[in-house]
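ok so for the tutorial part 2 we go from a plain amino acid sequence to predicted structure tokens. step 1 is just haveing the sequence, like this:
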Amino acid sequence: MKLASGIVGTILALALVGESARAQTAPASSAEKASAVSTANNAPTTPNSNPVQTFYLTNVYQTNDAVELTTALRNMLDAHDKIYLVPSQNAIFVQASPEQLVLARKLLNDLDRPKKTYRLTYKITEMDDGKRVGVQHFAMVVVTGQRTVVKQGSRVPIVTGSYTGGSSAVQTQMTYLDIGLSFDATLDEFANGVRLRSKVEQSSIAEEKSGVGAQDPIVRQTSLEGTSFLTPGKPLVLGSLDVPGSTRHLDVEVVMEQVVQ
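step 2 — the prediction. this is what the tokens look like for a chain of 261 residues:
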């Protein structure tokens, strides 16, 4: 009798264990699956743990130069690094690994260098039939990589049109021409010297009229444009400009000196 009771108890225990196992391994319902998917989608993403560093440019004065430095960083650092230029602050934000930040700092130290300043003195010698009539000097301070323009002369008004205003009065439209001498210079430093891109332009008003209109003049213009390599303290003859309507010509010479800061 005791043996039969023990067998019955064992059978009941095994039945209860089976029911519990089936309850634990039963497939989840549709509501449970939707809840799991929603929880996975709303899980917070891991942010970029790389540090952010701000590099302030100390020797860059033009936006184009800052853009060139930013492009250099993007090409040299890892593709997943974040690099942003803030022109108003003259600063570059870089988010990258510590090793890449060290590389960025080295690149900027090499590229963001002080620009040298030079003084260009143009000497204009006026010649007439082989005789020197007069000499003029025009000096300008030029920073390497930047364009500098000097003009001397007059602004001549030119009538470009007319229209009738609200009061039935005829309004005349005017534009102005720069007449005289103008100098346009840009210096760039190279390993073998300093390159000068220069344009010297001389213009004047002719005595005869164009015939298009009573107030339309004829503008005579001569231009000397080219690229030269300069040595500090050594004059260089750029060329000669003929003065239209006369036997005179202008010999153009330039000398460069570094400005000590």
